[in-house]
């Protein structure tokens, strides 16, 4: 078998760079004797010696047809088809033959290693690394790896998402880790970077370009199914998977990133790199990256949401509380891997530790205390006091309104208007009936009164010029207090 001229060229190029024969063989996927032969004589060919006949000889054409249909077809599948045609051999001989055929094909697709200049290029890629469990919630675990191509210096960050904002956050952290940016950034065809590709025509993701613009980085997209074009990051992901991950467990995403950062400093970036023969951290001394801009972009996940009656916002399947005075307003939620912040008109009004569980309420004690103070303040409101004076059913109904997060002042004003229209007794009856069905709101009381009661004759009072006097409401007198007073006075007189 004659080795392709590209392989011979690569053998001599690597030898000129000082590579040992063992390393050249491992790099090119060939044997050390083969390396030695072609170093001694680049034009040397193996003699075409007659070989022993093989059981597979009558089936070679059939095997080649199967390989053309599926180059990665497994040996057991090939054996099934051969057996149907009368082959009586074992899977071992089939597996050995497939290995040889795929080895020959690999020689025909040899790629030359292209070395980058210092600070010329970053390569990036995602890897999937299982999941982390939070309570009853499982979150997928991803890692974005970034490598500076000349030095092989690596940065890694674990995330629970590959969303656009998360990609930008990780890249921003990587640029800070390296202390600057390269001229180019090499990506595969992930949708967060490349939205459309037709041959050599590439349309990059607009958000990705907007993120890169202040850093003056040129994106470069690999061809489809051309992993060799970003071989350095492919090797980094593989190295992360087989050197860092085994025998490790993570409490949460913070723990995972602390462990990988320690691994980068103590192992990955201080090891002797097989490709360069140097430690990445030492070669990185030759790299002069472009400085970062003075104003860095805010890459947090961002969404606009409404603050609900329970003084909380919904984000990523959880609720996070806010001060109660923000209820009903449209706010902006910004989140990274550790915190969730709430902004009103660019002013931060709340910040929480991010929860990676789902369907949880994350509440600050201060927010709950503010709600209690507002509720206590409500009891001193003149209309609330007037409504409460109607008796215990009214007080109990008020508490139900508070627990159901109803607008108290607006609801009480409506209920007092219904009292003027139907009378205290009718309103108390409707309140008791609504409370029995846990129906809290002025509309329920109004509906009961409309269906079951008749408005009493209403004679509006004389309207005074001073509007404040027209709005005065007197508390309902408690007749039980008068009865107790009469009984007590009678006992004293007797």
Q: What is the CATH class of the largest domain?
A: Alpha Beta
Rg of Cα set:
38 Å
| Number of extended strands | 14
Helical content class: 40-55%
The CATH topology of the largest domain comes to Nucleotidyltransferase, domain 5
Shape: elongated
Main beta-sheet strand count, sense and barrel state? 5 strands, mixed
Structural class: alpha+beta
Number of self-contained structural domains: 5
- SS strand fraction: 15-25%
Number of helices: 19
What order do the strands of the largest sheet run in, or round the barrel if closed?
Answer: 3-2-1-4-7
Q: Unreliable stretches, pLDDT < 50, 5 or more residues?
A: 104-108
What is the CA-CA span between the terminal residues? 131 Å
CATH architecture of the largest domain: 2-Layer Sandwich
Q: How are the secondary structure elements laid out?
A:
Blueprint: H1 5-16, H2 21-28, H3 32-40, H4 60-69, H5 75-84, H6 91-107, E1 121-134, E2 137-148, E3 153-159, H7 164-178, E4 184-187, E5 194-198, E6 201-204, H8 206-212, E7 218-221, H9 231-244, H10 253-266, H11 280-283, E8 301-306, E9 312-315, E10 318-321, E11 330-335, E12 339-344, E13 347-353, E14 361-362, H12 365-378, H13 382-388, H14 392-403, H15 408-422, H16 424-436, H17 442-452, H18 467-470, H19 479-493
Parallel strand pairs: 1-4, 4-7, 10-14
Antiparallel strand pairs: 1-2, 2-3, 5-6, 8-11, 9-10, 11-12, 12-13
Helix pairs in contact: 1-2, 2-3, 5-6, 13-15, 14-16, 15-16, 15-17, 16-17
